[in-house]
Known about the structure:
This protein is mainly beta. The protein has one domain (2-146). It is built from no helices and eleven strands. The model has no long low-confidence stretch (mean pLDDT 94).
Amino acid sequence: MTFRLDGDIPRIRIPSPGVSRIGTELWRHTCFEAFIALEGQPSYYEFNFAPSGEWCVYALSSYRNGAPVPDEAMRPHIALRSNHSRLELDAIVRLDALSAIHPRAVLRIGLSAVIEANDGTLSYWALRHPADKPDFHNADGFALIVEPATE
Length: 151
């Protein structure tokens, strides 16, 4: 996945790159997120990717019902590129680390971002906000449908 943010990047609070490690509460600052569900299933995974290299994965059995997965096998590869007008974060996630079925299944994916301005205010961005108030966990916001690759 590649997340791209175009704008006046110096006005955004961006965590400095550091060691790739499991983090907590990454959504309290600039962070990119991916929600991945199997088509027709209430369970899903939430991935948080911070520009610092910190990451976290949550396994949820239903809407907001789950816990972090403290498994280094889930570690994504995160790369960051930035200049004054663009920030790009690449996150490579191994779907087979979720389960053997994910690489061969129809997936519903929600992509989102929390952006922290230099004054500390947060804004919430997503492919789709299905309600008046942003709620990245709302499955109606999992707007991207990915079909399995055919051989």
